[in-house]
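Supplementary notes for students who missed Thursday's class. We covered one full example, reproduced here. Read the sequence, then the structure, then the short commentary at the end.
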Amino acid sequence: MSMKATMEKARSLNLAEVLERFNEQIVATWHYRMLNDRSSRYSEEPEAELRLLIRQATKAFRLALVDEDWNSLHRFIDYIAPKRLQGGFTLSEVQRAFERYREVVTPLMVVHIDPPHLSQTLLRLHHCMVATVTRFSTYFQDLHEEFLRNQAHYLEREIADRTRELAESERKYKILVEDINDGYLVLVAGTIVYANNAFAAMHGCGSHAVIGIDFLDLVAAESKAAVQHALFDRGTSSMRPARLEYARLHRGGRQLPTEIMAKTSSYGGEIATIGICRDISQRVELEAKTREAEKLNALAQLAASLAHEINNPLTAIKMNVQMLSENGVPETSQRRLVASTLGEIDTIKRCVTEMMDLTVPFRLKCQWMTTRALIEDCLGIVEARRSYQGVRITTRLSRHVTDIHVDPERIEQAVINLLLNALEVLPRGGKIFISTAVAKAHGSRWIEIRIADDGPGIPKEKLPYVFDPFYSQKAGGIGLGLGNVKKIVEAHGGEVLVEPRKPRGIRFTLRFPKG
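Structure (token representation):
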């Protein structure tokens, strides 16, 4: 078949057949072009909702073009106009959307409709588009004008209401400002241009006596620099409130603690500072008493905990001494009692040392030593207790971790503390795991000493508090050991991490800077 015959066959459809046969193609092409039109808000529309609207419009256009039934198209315009107005669409955006239909349908008409009927069909399409755009534009414009009129009436009513409210508010505000107990003032260029009676009374003056004077003249000498910076040196563009405690001057010569809350604003067309001042003498006195009470309470808590911790070993020492004083005690029993007594004395010494370490700054005596030697020294110190309890200790020392620059005595104290804590909670047959590694954290390389066990562990919600002084999981414990571990490691520029160990137990990681 020749090309001409093929074209003639393609042109064998009329307008109704073209719109019916290619309906889905028209909808899909129109939908695609709308979604990809980045110059309008249609690209932001939900795809399913936009396709439904395009399908409705396509059907309405077909009824108008083929059957000259304009009702569906008019109903669609009446529906879409207020919807697009509320959505913030411009008139030109919606007009271009309708023109997309012409762009999609025209090529189909040119290909499939015979030339004798094509010009008439295109003219019908043109009249339909003109009528559609004209009706929509008129309706859209009417809605827009009505919206503007309603908005104008609303704003007029709102302005009238706000004007009445403002007048009433100003009246109430003046009464409120004069009656409040806090001092209220307005500063322009640092000078007091308004102050209520309470502010004047705070300085032992009448309200008229403070107007026109420099605010800094009412501030004690030691507070002037802080007040100057907080209130006047921040720049006029800063609108953030400034809260400051300072000492004010009273006419009687006293300096009284005061709090001011100030903010940059406008007063009489000028940049101003509006402030509210409050006398905080009672609060300052109460805070001082509270701090003193907290210190006494902490001291009492420490004394009670220390007494409880020391009382048990003292009781054991007393019993041992009484037994040693008796005649006929076998030599083996004597050695056992002496060893027990020495152990209890070491317990008392460790308890006192922990308490002192918590309050006294460390003086580190750092030196290079091998990590293996450090671990072996600590294990040697707890070996007797480990053997007696039947606990197994497994070590895995990295070949990449050799020397470490630390205070040997302090680090041994920290490691032994963690080992003793583990031994206290592990049953016979329990396990302790010690390992070393090189890790990367915070952009640096660190040496890590990890001490873990398979004991009962620590509840997850209590982990943030394990290093707090006087916080203890052990019955009768004073809660200083882990606090000292943290203090020792941080004194070396490191940090301590604690986390649950799977499937059970706890893991402490001592992390030191790698030299």
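Commentary. Confidence is low (pLDDT under 50) at residues 1-7. The first strand starts at residue 183 and ends at 188. If anything here is unclear, bring it to office hours.
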